[in-house]
Every structure is written in structure tokens, then in C-alpha cells.
């Protein structure tokens, strides 16, 4: 039986009108492929950005799971659909181009690596869906960083208040934001492993020193020191 994995409304760039247009076109039957989808939906409401987000999120996997090839073919598919519309309006001798034999093929592209697949899911959804990026590195890093982020978060508040204790942790950078404080500019990195996430603060000197290493979707192995921030944990 079909399984709902995630709502269309949660995919970036899709709006209520676009989703309604997709559902309306879907009433004619399941979409056969990317070209069939682009031919049938209302392109005024389902534009290139919407189609690309759907592909990145995996919405087309049931008809073709080669996401890299699909993404590279969006322009071709939309142009094919526009050409079919023009031909229909002009009563072209070429007829209806919805016949798959008359459509161009998908663009050739290398399969995405597991990391690229997850990065594209995050672009479309704001998070990794089919797996967690940290799992690519988990077995290797657990040999030398045994402290999990969740274990830090579960430490008694007193451990944060006193500070001083240091731990080696590993995680993937989910986001980075820069904040100005009385101590100067600092970077706040959201670090995540397979189960939890936390914020790691890089104060001015450390932030300037390590700025080039702080990149989204990259693994970091850090020695962190517990410190209380504004009465909470940080």
C-alpha cells in the first residue's frame, strides 16, 4: 500500500496553489515520468523552482530514482511541455507530443553520492530525510569520539555552571550564524549527530581562526568545553 513519507506543503517553493494544480492534474491518473508531469501540470503555478524542489526531495523516486538526471532534465522537460502547448494551439501537423516516443530523453548525469543526495534533500526540506548525513561518518568517528551530543545535553546543570570539563564530540554542521556581542563577533554553529543537535559557540579568536573550516554539511570533530549561557546550557 502507498505510504505517505512527507507532505507536499513542506517542500520549499511549493505553495497552496501549486499543490492544488498538481493534485488536479493527478486526477487523470498517476504521472508516468518527469515529462508526463510537466506536460500535465499548470506551468503558471508549477514552475521550474517547484519541479526542482520536488526532485531534490525525492517526490519522483517512484517513477525514476535517478535524481541527478531528473534535475538536469528539468529545463528539457519544461521546454517539451511548452512546445506541446504551442503545437496544440497552432493545430500543428506534429500532433500531441505527449507520446513518450516523441519526447527527448533525460539528460545524462552521474548518480549523486549519498552525501549529495542528503544535501539536496536538505535544500528542499530544510533537513535530511532519507538518512542523516552524520551516518556516513559515524562508524569511523566513533572510534575516537565516543561522547554523543545527547550525552552532553543530559549532563546535570551543575556541570555547565562550573564549566572546565572538556569533551571530544563529532557532528555535522547544520547551520552557522554570526552574532555580535560584548566580547566581539562570534559564530554559533548548530552541530548534529545521528540523534541530537546542539549549539557550539566559537568566540572571536577561535571563530576567526577556524572560519574556513566551518561549512554547512561538513563533519566537525571538536573538543568542547561546557559553559552556561544566560542561565541555560551552551
Q: Give the strand tally.
A: 6
Low-confidence stretches: none
Mean pLDDT, all residues? 87
- Described by the principal axes of the CA atoms, the overall outline is elongated
Helicity level, as a percent range?
25-40%
How much of the polypeptide forms β-strand, as a percent range? 15-25%
Instruction: Encode the helix/strand succession as letters.
Output: HHHHHHHHHEEEHEEE
Order of strands across the widest beta sheet?
Answer: 3-2-1-4
Tally of helical segments:
10
Query: Rg, please?
Result: 24 Å
Outline the structure in words.
- With 234 residues, the chain is an alpha+beta fold.
- 36% of the residues lie in helices and 18% in strands.
- The protein contains ten helices and six strands, in the order αααααααααβββαβββ.
- The protein has helices at 16-26, 34-40, 48-57, 67-72, 74-89, 114-125, 138-141, 149-153, 157-162, 204-210, and strands spanning 166-181, 184-192, 197-202, 219-225, 228-229, 232-233.
- The protein has a four-stranded antiparallel β-sheet with strand order 3-2-1-4. A two-stranded antiparallel sheet has the order 5-6.
- Strand 1 and strand 2 (184-192) form a beta hairpin.
- Helix 2 (34-40) crosses helix 5.
- The longest helix has 16 residues, at 74-89.
- The relative contact order is 0.10.
- The model has no long low-confidence stretch (mean pLDDT 87).
